[in-house]
Amino acid sequence: MEFDLKRIDEIIDACGCEAKNLITVLQNVQAELRYLPNEVMEHIAKRMDISVAKVFSVATFYENFSLNAKGEYVIKICDGTACHVRKSIPILTKVRELLELSEEKPTTDDMMFTVETVSCLGACGLAPVLTVNDKVFPAMTPEKAEQLIQDIKEGKIEC
Amino acid sequence: MGFMYIDDMKVEFENEKNILEVTRKIGIELPTLCYYSELSTYGACRMCMVENERGGFEAACSTLPREGMRIKTNTPALIKHRRMILELLLAAHCRDCTTCDKSGACRLQELALRYGVKSVRFEDHRQKKPLDTSSKSIVRDPNKCILCGDCVRVCREKQGLGILDFAYRGSKMRVMPAFDRCIADTDCVNCGQCAAVCPTGAITVKDETDIMWKYLNDPTKRVVVQVAPAVRVALGEQFGLPEGTNVMGKIVKALKMMGVDKVFDTVVSADMTVVEEAGEFLERVAAGGPFPMFTSCCPAWIKYAEIKHPELINKNISSCKSPMQMFGAVIDELYGNDSERELVSIAVMPCTAKKYEVSRPEFTRKDGKRIVELSLTTQELANMIKNAGIDFANLEEEFLDAPFDMGGSGAGVIFGVTGGVAEAVIRECAKDKTTAYIKEMREVGVRGKKSLKEAVINVDGREVRIAVVHGLKAAEDLIVSMNQGEAYYDIVEVMACPEGCIGGAGQPFALRPRRDKRAKALYRTDNDMSVKYSSKNPETVYVFDEVIKDRNHEMLHVHYHRNEK
Question: Could you tell me the pLDDT band of residue B182, with boundaries at 50, 70 and 90?
């Protein structure tokens, strides 16, 4: 796959070329591409004069960085303590079932959805909660989640 | 400056960077798995913990000595703590010690023995990972890694490359190249320092001794071996001889006992390198450049330059082959066309990068045969001597084979230590061949263990500015400062390993005090040699007149074409 390396350079220049800005650069690049492709990490390493192994090290250390391409809609189902006791697992099971996904296969073949779990979204009062991209959906049930996915597919909800 | 109490002994400290160095000073060796005085402090293994007066633990490697501080180094609580760490490390470690390459030299094994770890209560649930044998120089076994990060730091801090780093986190953390690629697919320059500092068998030097045994037992082969300068001052350590003993005579004898046909000394071809490099330098002086001229003996440096500074290749870097390859060409000329017995040219080197150098297409004959078939390390030779059951320490000395039985000049011997190549070349260049000049050269600043040494010396009326670096990070810093116009040199010697070849990754592992003894032994050998100048050595004269016969360019120089498509 080809990537717009000029755009990556712009991001690096905006953040500053010093090694200390690596995390910011990776975050901004991921915001643009939805993940961190190997070629792009190599390019960043070269531009910022950091070893590729170091860039890979940082990218794999933080859970929030993804090395694999994600879908257009990233559904994060909270499985922190509060959400877990308020039955988040049935929501997760339902969503995975609907989209034919699993822990090993988190992204649909049409690159539309990615389903992940997170340990806490910090919205325990709204448990069980899930987010689609950055939008929060509180007090979910398996049924509400099914409706939500349907709505997204039909374009009724923007996320 | 101040006083502290270690195990109730009053101890003076000066400017030691941590308690660990203070304890070492008084002869207590705290256990460590991740501490090397020459690298940055990491503080991960927690083995060097000491107990303070309140019963708390402090990591000796990362704690400054304080006035009046009281610590204990060996309490029951500490022993229990260290044993626990070892047990946990061993639980997640391949424990096939008897078949491990590192057995006997493994820090983990040594400490487990020292602290009496009798059983491991935990099962290893990790999946076995495959070995990385892609590199010509090293083998990486991820199953034996204890995540001490020594390899990560030596590669980043000394070589400026950072090929290896930690990846992932927590229980999934591992040390690997970027994207878990194999070493051969990275910019690794084969210096092998990661293997040298690895406390376990996670990174080891590739073992090619079996191939050598096959050659030695094949009557259709004529095995000719050359031995590098630095090997002779390190090999004896493996057989209980005092550090810094020159064992060249014993090496010759041992090789002969193993069935080698001819043994030569790479010092002879170091002399050839000196003559050629000095000639090249004087040509550059006459032509007005290009300066600086970089030395070209170190294959890790050549590979580094090809990757990071291709503009220097075939230009600033001397076109001279390494001494090993020069001798390779001469040996091939002398014995390579014997129809009765096929020549197998072998080198014993302190170096792991030579294993890669021998495979380079530039050093392969037209018929596909390598000029030097195999490069064995000092450690591999030691292992072979042990295989053969030779009582090395008590071996009678034997002399080298004709026509190179003198074994070169003093200038060639010092190739094995940082600053040696530069010193030898300048010694050759100067028309001033007095003892006083040689002695002046000694004091001018090319000797010593600093990573960057600078010297100015008068060569027949011209001021020659010399820089000597060891460690590729130091080389990189120097190139940057030259590019920025902050420094100017006429001649730059680069060696990748700490203090040159004496600290090569193929040698038995050595920190500074031991390397000092090796360096001193080489300089002492230079003093003892009857011939001090490379070109005055009768063997050099013979080689140039009778073997090379004006084919200097073809036989002794090389054009690197890794970057040419």
Answer: very high
Q: Which residue of B has its CA nearest to A54?
A: B165
Residue A38 contacts B where some CB pair is shorter than 8 Å: yes
Please choose, from the candidates B478, B501, B514, B437, the residue with its C-alpha nearest in 3D space to the C-alpha of residue B38.
B514
CB B526 within 8 A of CB B411: yes
Domains and CATH numbers, chain A: 5-61 (no CATH), 73-153 (3.40.30.10)
Residues of A with Cβ-Cβ distance to B156 under 8 angstroms: 51, 54
Checking if the pLDDT of B280 tops 80, the result is yes
Which chain B residues are closer than 8 Å to A55 by Cβ? 178
Select from 3.40.50.720, 3.10.25.10, 3.40.50.1780, 3.30.930.10 the CATH code of B210-556: 3.40.50.1780
Shortest distance, CA A155 to any CA of chain B (angstroms): 37
Residues comprising chain B, all counted: 565
Q: Strand, coil or helix: what is B50?
A: strand
Identify the burial level of B122 via C-beta atoms within 10 angstroms of its C-beta, where 0-12 means exposed, 13-18 middle and 19 or more buried.
exposed
Of B161, B166, B186, the CB nearest to A57: B166
Per-residue pLDDT tens over the stretch B498-550: 999 999 999 998 888 889 999 999 999 998 888 889 988 899 999 999 998 98
Tell me the average pLDDT across B277-292.
91
Say which CATH class B2-74 falls into: alpha beta
- What's the CATH fold of domain B87-205? Alpha-Beta Plaits (3.30.70)
